[in-house]
Amino acid sequence: MIIKLHKWLIFILLECTIPLLMATISEEEQRVIAPDSSEEEKVFDLTLRPKQLSEFVGQEQIKEPLSISIEAAKKREEPIEHVLLYGNPGLGKTTLAHIIAYEMGHGIKMTAGPALERVGDLAAILSNLQKGDVLFIDEIHRMNKTIEEVLYSAMEEYALDIIVGKGPAARTLRMPLEQFTLIGATTKMNLLSGPLRDRFGHIFHLNFYEPEEISKIVARNAKLLEVDIEPEAHHVIAKCSRRTPRVANRLLRRIRDYAEVKHDGIISIKVAEDALCMLSIDKSGLDEVDRKILHTIINNFAGGPVGLNTLSAAIAEEMETLESIYEPYLMQIGMIERTSRGRKATRMAYEHLGQEFKEQEALL
Ligand SMILES: Nc1ncnc2c1ncn2[C@@H]1O[C@H](COP(=O)(O)OP(=O)(O)O)[C@@H](O)[C@H]1O
Ligand SMILES: [Mg+2]
Fold first, then answer.
1. What are the start-end ranges of the H helices in the chain?
2. 92 secondary structure, DSSP code
3. Does the CA dihedral 271-277-283-284 come out positive or negative?
4. pLDDT for the residue numbered 30
5. Which of 113, 206, 290, 348 is the least buried, fewest Cβ under 10 Å from its Cβ?
6. How far apart are CA 262 and CA 45, in angstroms?
7. Could you tell me whether strands 342-345 and 336-339 are parallel, antiparallel, or unpaired per DSSP bridges?
8. How far away, in angstroms, is 325 Cα from ligand 2 center?
9. Is-contact 107 130, C-beta < 8 A?
10. pTM of the full predicted structure?
């Protein structure tokens, strides 16, 4: 039996405690070039985060279709279709979600997959949305199945179907919702279920940035932070930023500190290079862990192929971290290759470490 009830009544029925839903993802110890953000950085991020689509550098493949959809939705006075953003950490998913809400002229509520533990958590957030608001769910692939299923009707019919009670006394309560836009962000598209993926009207993939785009971001942020930086130094920072804006922002901050303490505050090429050297970041943007990975594949496993499991044990890093943080960039710049039998170091990796490339080993 379906009973239509006012949303506030259900809200009380569900005895929802609104937990602190702002992303509660545990943070690991931070490397200087880790693409994940630290607490301290979130405040800093607020200053630098572009607010409008026109300030968002790069990702042209997303910006154009997105701006058309935003404009069309505004004309029709409807919310924009649900959006799924996927890409590596630090490439701008959260930033884009804020931009979409801003451009639509509506509010945004933020949560994360692991923070939604009970259906009541989701109901509490959804029932508080105004027409046109954006609900941003970060790490949407980490949401539990029950919540995911409840989300389906919310996305499709703007209603929540909630089962209350057990056995013969069970009732389905339908709670009507305002029309909203769900924006999901994920770093792992393959972990997202098909039915959830199909319910998004737009699916956008964020790519790694080109070095010139990162240079532009560094220049823009240096201006916002009133940092004195020579134009050529933008490129030095951009080259070491793993093609990731978050890393570029972090390096800019560290180099600014170095310039202020060790020099007169001006970031010249020399100051930027010295600071990067102090941070053990080389000219390709690799740090000690990256070099250890390459070194281990080459010297302990004769250049590979070596399985991810074995490699993670050998360098004492979690497999998950290795796979989602280190490997994508090393692969992106062509230092390692993924084969069916594991990871292999490329000629470029040998050259980077100043070691002789041994063809027969790499072919093993
Ligand atoms: N395209 C971009 N243009 C300018 N700055 C960007 C861009 N993308 C990301 N940033 C910067 O990088 C930081 C991290 O981006 P964020 O959206 O938090 O990444 P994600 O959510 O994908 O991990 C933001 O604070 C923002 O300042
Ligand atoms: Mg984010």
1. 7-13, 39-48, 60-76, 93-104, 119-127, 145-157, 194-198, 211-224, 231-239, 245-262, 269-278, 288-300, 308-315, 319-321, 327-332, 347-352, 359-363
2. S
3. negative
4. 60
5. 348
6. 25
7. antiparallel
8. 14
9. yes
10. 0.84
Residue 57 CB less than 6 A away from ligand 1:
yes
- Identify the structural domains of the chain with CATH numbers, from first to last: 2-205 (3.40.50.300), 211-278 (1.10.8.60), 288-363 (1.10.10.10)
> Best mutation site among 53, 60, 95 for ligand 1, i.e. most ligand atoms within 8 A of its Cβ?
95
What is the length of the chain?
364
How many Å separate Cα 2 from the centre of its chain?
A: 39
Radius of gyration over alpha carbons of the chain, in Å? Answer: 23
**Nearest Cα residue to atom 27 of ligand 1:** 49
The reply to whether ligand 1 has any atom less than 6 angstroms from the CB of 249 is yes
Rounded Cα distance between 233 and 272, Å, is 6
- Name the residue among 52, 57, 82 with its Cα closest to residue 67: 52
The one-digit pLDDT tens for each residue of the chain (364 residues) are 445 555 555 444 444 433 333 333 333 346 777 777 666 676 667 778 999 999 999 999 999 999 999 999 999 999 999 999 999 999 999 999 999 999 999 999 999 999 999 888 899 999 999 999 999 999 999 999 989 998 999 999 999 988 888 888 888 888 899 999 999 999 999 899 999 999 999 999 999 999 999 999 999 999 998 999 999 999 999 999 999 999 999 999 999 999 999 989 999 999 999 999 999 999 888 999 999 999 999 999 999 899 999 999 999 988 888 888 899 899 999 999 998 899 999 999 999 999 998 765 444 4
From the CB of 215, is ligand 1 less than 6 Å away?
no
Report how many helices (DSSP H) and strands (DSSP E) the chain contains, helices first: 17, 10
pLDDT digit string (tens) for 11-68? 444 444 333 333 333 333 467 777 776 666 766 677 789 999 999 999 999 999 999 9
* 249 CA distance to ligand 1 middle (Å): 9
Nearest ligand, CA 244: 1
